[in-house]
Amino acid sequence: MATENHNIFTSEIIDALSIDCTIFGFQESRLKVLLVKHAEGIIKNQWALPGGWVAYNEDIHVAAYRLLKDLTGVKELYLEQLKAFGEVDRYPKKRVITIAYYALTRPENYQLIPGFTASDARWFNIEDIANLPYDHGQILDFSWRRLKRKVKYAPIGFNLLPEKFTLLQLQELYEAILEIRLDKPNFRRKIMKMNLLVPCDEKQIGVSHRAANLYHFDMQVYDKLTEDGFIFEF
Amino acid sequence: MATENHNIFTSEIIDALSIDCTIFGFQESRLKVLLVKHAEGIIKNQWALPGGWVAYNEDIHVAAYRLLKDLTGVKELYLEQLKAFGEVDRYPKKRVITIAYYALTRPENYQLIPGFTASDARWFNIEDIANLPYDHGQILDFSWRRLKRKVKYAPIGFNLLPEKFTLLQLQELYEAILEIRLDKPNFRRKIMKMNLLVPCDEKQIGVSHRAANLYHFDMQVYDKLTEDGFIFEF
DNA sequence: AAAACTTGTAGTCATGTTGACTATAAGAAT
DNA sequence: ATTCTTATAGTCAACATGACTACAAGTTTT
Quick check: is A6 in a domain? Predict the structure, then answer.
């Protein structure tokens, strides 16, 4: 088996297995993805999905959390496994199968702290991302497709919004994820019928037009919908 | 790293990585799953999901095909990866992460040929399956949940039917997968509106009642629906 | 041969959902 | 005061849905 120097848990990792993660965020009505600049290794100074090696005695889901925290400083997020990517030549020099995750978080809640083997961490507009190393482009595509599908039958998109938000923000979130345009009155009608949103007794502040009502989730309905699934077709 | 004897590609496999597969079939209006009886190893003589080790120079998808063919004799099927299961203690004695696949096939098209490390291979009614070893019960649950979700937005369920089939067979397939009952006329109306089915100029034979029309897929529409996705809500 | 039985297939109807659109409200900026 | 922007309410025709009824085309029973 080919070997190579890597400085994380050198003696303890599962040599042929890594984790890579697509972290989605939503800011200024755009869908964003968090990339890290590698500080060392084969792709030093290139932007790539955050990832790393799984320790021998570590649950893979735990490993994904650990890597994200160490590389980017992001701690609280919705994290879900996508699938394993295992083409023979996906990684140079040796055989490495990677388990891909995707995560949803709120960029404004965190200060990015590049750490470990990352010299920088930044949010990119998803449409601007090109030329990722290895098969990270493929992983990103797969992640986005999964997100597009998932927001239609689970209320997970809400993990990307601040706690209190307007209906337009919610609509723009769907528009950004699905790359479509929606009719405002119809969107309102549809989303309100689900009883998922509860109006706060608060309005937007600091906007130069009529202030919109702020809403938050009814967590009971949220949990129920998450469990039962629902269909949100446009 | 803990070691152990296994007699498949002993020197060439990725030690910590295996593949397990849930193969679905549909027979006598019931949803079935193919299990194999292990001929050796830790769970000798127990029924379990077919699976095995990935070779060092083998694409994981190719490995899944190979294992299914070797263990069960089943060659042509729809095969899709689910995800990796990687709890630390899921496998005794050493750390093994498994990549789970699920497959759809037509039981009547194949003779089961247990081979390799399997002494027997048989179709089981999915509701009758209990006490699978390792975390195979969890993998089976996950597979079924994925199948339930997937048949609602892709025409994949059709991989389980014979080439020519009646509308009732199709309806019973949905009923078996989703564990629901459907109204016959309404089901017809809905499925026919999709233009997915083309009537063969043939009727059922050998039935003791009015013979139903046989249908097959319009492969063009089938491919288009597979690509675009659709919603089949009941 | 007629009646009873089983499954297939067509159609009805009230209700609900959808998409496209109009209208008005509530502010801020000019 | 007028204009601009976004919020929010409501209308309407077209379509989809779920619950049924009715009838057709065969087999089996009597």
Answer: no
Q: Among all residues of chain A, which has the CA nearest to that of B13?
A: A1
Cβ of residue B81 closer than 8 Å to a chain A Cβ = yes
Question: CB burial class (10 A; 0-12, 13-18, 19+) of residue A158?
Answer: buried
Strand ranges in A39-147 using DSSP code E only, listed in sequence order: 47-48, 51-55, 78-85, 97-104, 118-125
Q: Would you call A83 and B83 a contact, using CB atoms and an 8 Å cutoff?
A: yes
Share of chain A above pLDDT 70, in %: 95
B8, part of any domain: no
Residue A217 to residue A200: CA distance in whole angstroms: 10
| Contacts with B99 from chain A: Cβ below 8 Å | 84, 86, 97
Mean pLDDT (whole number) for A64-84: 94
Element (H, E) at A25: strand A13-27
Strand C contacts in A 187-206 (CB under 7 A): 189-190, 193, 203
Q: What is the pLDDT averaged over residues A181-195?
A: 95
**Is the CB of A206 within 7 Å of strand D?**
no
pLDDT of residue B195: 92
Q: Which is higher by pLDDT, A98 or B93?
A: A98
Q: What is the CATH number of the domain that holds A175?
A: 1.10.10.10
Domain harbouring B106, CATH code:
3.90.79.10
Residue range(s) defining the domain that contains residue A94: 13-150
Q: How far is the CA of A211 from the C1' of C27 (A)?
A: 7
In a domain, A125, yes or no: yes
pTM score over 0.85: yes
* Model confidence band, residue B118 (pLDDT cutoffs 50, 70, 90): confident
Residue B62's pLDDT band, with cuts at 50, 70 and 90, is: very high
Task: Give the pLDDT band of residue B199 (cuts 50, 70, 90).
Answer: very high
